[in-house]
């Protein structure tokens, strides 16, 4: 367990045009049918001005059980990317079920020496939470290759694609706060209020799993935090149960606000079903009077708005705004902690 004092943020160095971004299999395998998605991701990232390379384990049809390779092999490749000074960012190819197997094999000293953006969601939520806990690294809960840049992005309206491309480019290259994320009519105020706090979260089941490991975030780190979460698959009752776990362990008593992503393929949340997701959330929160903003576009429903773990944000649920109040990356020369 790490110190209970709030972590000193470890911001990766801002990317520059021509920097190398590597797409890597950090969890699940790459089915041959999704090979074109990787190609589309390369196009998107190159359009942002980056050079792009595929890591060796990102090979269509390669698999070990439900993974791209064994946990030790994935950790070995990830550590190689973390140690390689030419590599400036790592984009996960997909989610899956493997990150739990190598959380203890990651070279955290390489991260401290040369922090780099790691982009992904789903199973990659575990990496963001654990690396934030162990090093203070800002994690990029953001789109990845197969379901994101090469998937949801391709079916989005052209104007939305351009908006997201500009947003991601600013996120990775800019050292000024982005400010308000682009809102949409889908955003809903489930409980009004206005707060500021550090952004912590991911897929809700992975938050719960991370807290069951020896790399769990100390509860004090949730003091005043804005908790964001989303979920894919399973049952509505599971979501209620995960929220109850966070209630029992004290997380819900410490956070100052909550942002909920668009639910995806959750049985029991179909139109006309009861309870609704807002009812589930407010039932567990009880009389905890914190703002809740719902149905925000991040997670499996995609395309993703980026949610940088550890960054201070401003949330106004009634006005339906969520703002990044500080940059997710640091100056080019920076390779260490910043306040």
Automatic annotation (TrEMBL):
<dbReference type="InterPro" id="IPR027478">
    <property type="entry name" value="LdcA_N"/>
</dbReference>
<protein>
    <submittedName>
        <fullName>LD-carboxypeptidase</fullName>
    </submittedName>
</protein>
<dbReference type="InterPro" id="IPR040921">
    <property type="entry name" value="Peptidase_S66C"/>
</dbReference>
<feature type="domain" description="LD-carboxypeptidase C-terminal">
    <location>
        <begin position="196"/>
        <end position="314"/>
    </location>
</feature>
<feature type="active site" description="Nucleophile">
    <location>
        <position position="122"/>
    </location>
</feature>
<dbReference type="InterPro" id="IPR003507">
    <property type="entry name" value="S66_fam"/>
</dbReference>
<dbReference type="Pfam" id="PF02016">
    <property type="entry name" value="Peptidase_S66"/>
</dbReference>
<feature type="domain" description="LD-carboxypeptidase N-terminal">
    <location>
        <begin position="21"/>
        <end position="142"/>
    </location>
</feature>
<keyword id="KW-0645">Protease</keyword>
<dbReference type="InterPro" id="IPR027461">
    <property type="entry name" value="Carboxypeptidase_A_C_sf"/>
</dbReference>
<dbReference type="Pfam" id="PF17676">
    <property type="entry name" value="Peptidase_S66C"/>
</dbReference>
<dbReference type="InterPro" id="IPR029062">
    <property type="entry name" value="Class_I_gatase-like"/>
</dbReference>
<keyword id="KW-0121">Carboxypeptidase</keyword>
<dbReference type="GO" id="GO:0004180">
    <property type="term" value="F:carboxypeptidase activity"/>
</dbReference>
<feature type="active site" description="Charge relay system">
    <location>
        <position position="230"/>
    </location>
</feature>
<keyword id="KW-0378">Hydrolase</keyword>
<comment type="similarity">
    <text>Belongs to the peptidase S66 family.</text>
</comment>
<dbReference type="InterPro" id="IPR040449">
    <property type="entry name" value="Peptidase_S66_N"/>
</dbReference>
<feature type="active site" description="Charge relay system">
    <location>
        <position position="300"/>
    </location>
</feature>
């Amino acid at each position: 367990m790490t110190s209970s004092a709030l972590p000193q943020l470890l911001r990766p160095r801002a990317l520059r045009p021509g920097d190398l971004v590597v797409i890597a299999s950090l969890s699940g395998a790459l089915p041959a049918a999704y090979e074109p998605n990787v190609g589309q991701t390369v196009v998107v990232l190159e359009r942002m001005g980056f050079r792009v390379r595929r890591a060796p384990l990102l090979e269509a049809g390669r698999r070990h059980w439900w993974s791209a390779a064994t946990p030790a092999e994935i950790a070995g490749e990830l550590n190689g990317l973390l140690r390689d000074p030419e590599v400036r960012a790592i984009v996960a190819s997909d989610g899956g079920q493997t990150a739990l197997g190598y959380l203890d094999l990651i070279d955290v000293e390489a991260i401290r020496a040369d922090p780099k953006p790691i982009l992904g969601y789903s199973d990659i939520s575990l990496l963001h939470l654990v690396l934030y806990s162990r090093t203070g690294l800002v994690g990029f809960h953001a789109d990845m290759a197969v379901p994101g840049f090469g998937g949801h992005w391709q079916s989005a309206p052209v104007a939305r694609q351009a908006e997201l491309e500009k947003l991601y480019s600013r996120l990775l290259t800019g050292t000024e706060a982005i400010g308000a994320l682009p809102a949409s009519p889908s955003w809903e105020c489930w409980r009004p209020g206005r707060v500021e706090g550090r952004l912590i979260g991911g897929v809700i089941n992975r938050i719960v799993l991370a807290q069951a490991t020896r790399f769990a975030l100390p509860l004090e780190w949730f003091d005043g935090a804005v908790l964001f979460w989303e979920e894919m698959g399973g049952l509505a009752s599971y979501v209620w149960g995960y929220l109850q776990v966070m209630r029992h362990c004290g997380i819900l008593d410490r956070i100052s606000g909550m942002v909920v992503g668009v639910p995806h393929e959750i049985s029991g949340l179909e139109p006309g079903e009861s309870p609704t997701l807002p009812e589930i959330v407010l039932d567990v929160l009880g009389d905890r009077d914190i703002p809740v903003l719902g149905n925000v576009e991040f997670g499996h429903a995609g395309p993703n708005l980026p949610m940088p773990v550890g960054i201070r944000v401003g949330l106004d649920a009634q006005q339906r705004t969520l703002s990044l109040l500080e940059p997710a990356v640091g100056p080019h020369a920076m390779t260490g902690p910043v306040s």
